[in-house]
Amino acid sequence: MGDDHTSTTPRTSGQGGRAPGGSWTACAALLALCLVLAARVLGPSDLGQNLDQSKTMSLTADMVVNAHWLVPADSMGEPTHKPPLMNWVAAPLVAAGVWTEWAFKLPSLLGALATFVAVGCIGARLLGAASDELRPAARALAVSSPTTLALAAALVWIASPSSVKHAYFCRPDMLFTAFVAWGWYAALRAGEGGPARVRWALAMWTLTGLALLTKGPMALLVPGYALLAPIVIRHVRHLPWHAWVWGAALAAGLFCLWLVPAWITHPEHVGGSLVGFEFFSRLEGSATGAGPLELVRKAPEIPGWFVERFVPWAIAALAALVVIPPTKWRTHPLAPAILWMLLVMLVTGLIRYRGASYLLPSYPAGAVLAAFVLLHRRSPIGIRTLAVAGVLVAALVAGREVLLSRAAKTRAGDRAWAFAQEARAIVGDESLLFVRTGDDPIPTMMRRVRPGQPTPDQLALAAWVILPISPDAGEGGPEAVLRSDRIVQTRAGSGAARTAPYALGLFHRSDWPEDWAPPTEPINDWGAGTPAPLPGPSRAPAPNSGSD
């Protein structure tokens, strides 16, 4: 399989000059990128709508405030369940005093930019190799400006719901996608052979190690592709055997630079929760419920999520599996994209506790395949039409985030930030406890680290307390020094969405009647539209842990 290598450099036709549509593609891709990032950064805050974001923020805050760099804890005092590279990237800026939402989400922003460029590089390589099957204008671009043609794939990628969401989402998904996308590109280049393949193998394993430090075992997609590609794709060469030996050692070594000291300092948590759950439990295929039959029953979820999160381009990406006949999948220049997309789908289907976010690494390949189908010689869509359509889709998806998303409708994140800023100005450096706030971003917004549940002694000595109250409360209990506007959180519970409107109250301990204590039932137990009211004075028992 090494002698019938097919070059993936663009085929030339002897044409010179500037190809039509090139400036349209470049301008459209950059405009779509700017629209998406501006809408997400300047639009309504989505914090408070997803508990994982609050957890990730609090992990970074714990690093900065308490120097827990190896195993930080979240706002409930629970140690992290993921490797900490995402938090390491955000921590320096936060430590410098930039305690803003975009600072905590900076790793996702950087990941989006890096993935955008990676999709362009992959597109230039693969679309250029398949240029004979494209429309004349696109084929001319492949000759005169393959980088510009590649921006068509980058445009498709950024103008999709999942990319728009995760580009500014406080979770490791986008940073992880950037590492594995570049790792796939490095594996693709290493598979071309030539004197540079060892250097590309070095890059592939380094990126695999960084991906392991970001989200764990899904990083094995990259060496998994490098192992399968020479077997499945006829023009891909094997990596030298020694590159597997030192490469695997390099990736494992990078991961162990964190894992070993973390294991030494927190052996039970790292061995049980991190390694036991994240690595083995998630990769246990039969653990998705009822074994192989359950895997088969849930198999349609994967293409369903792919279509839902990658509309409208998902249809074109899946159509590539028909436009390129299955008999040519192994020999076609876009075979690497087909293999990568199907590999991510397959692995996602085998993972326990899977979710749609696990498909995020498949969208770079989907974008390249979609661009190929849309620019195919039998397609009625030209390069300029694709450029205009991409900008319109990006504007629509970004506009939905600004006007129609849950964050836009509830304004929970914006109201939480406003309350946190006002409360921080009132409290200053005095002692403050958070009662019944759960995995809420308020402590982090106030530059505090909530060390789990407050004890009765801590509650008795606290100068200030913040707790959620009924939006209509105000009779009989102590008067809040500061009340937030109504906040609405939408959470998944038992497969159905629940809405729990509440307000946040800042109370001074000295204002409490002697016979009053704050309610202690968890906010997470509130039913739909029935938040716990603020009780009036009563002979309440001594407060317990006062937390969730």
Task: Give the helices and strands, then pairings.
Elements (H helix, E strand, L loop, with lengths): L21 H21 L8 H16 L18 H11 L5 H4 L1 H24 L6 H9 L1 H13 L2 H6 L6 H18 L6 H19 L5 H12 L8 H25 L1 H15 L10 H7 L2 H9 L3 H11 L11 H16 L12 H12 L8 H21 L2 H5 L1 H16 L4 E3 L7 H4 L10 H6 L2 E6 L12 E2 L3 E7 L2 E13 L40
Parallel strand pairs: 1-2
Antiparallel strand pairs: 2-5, 3-5, 4-5
Helix pairs in contact: 1-7, 1-19, 2-3, 5-7, 5-9, 5-18, 6-7, 7-18, 7-19, 9-10, 9-11, 10-12, 11-17, 12-13, 16-18, 17-18
What does this structure look like?
With 548 residues, this protein is mostly helical. The chain is 55% helix and 6% strand. It has 23 helices and five strands. The protein has helices at 22-42, 51-66, 85-95, 101-104, 106-129, 136-144, 146-158, 161-166, 173-190, 197-215, 221-232, 241-265, 267-281, 292-298, 301-309, 313-323, 335-350, 363-374, 383-403, 406-410, 412-427, 442-445, 456-461; strands at residues 432-434, 464-469, 482-483, 487-493, 496-508. β4 and β5 (496-508) form a beta hairpin. α11 (221-232) crosses α17. The chain starts with 21 loop residues before the first helix and ends in a 40-residue tail after the last strand. The relative contact order is 0.13. Mean pLDDT is 84; it is low at 1-17, 285-290, 492-498 and 522-548.
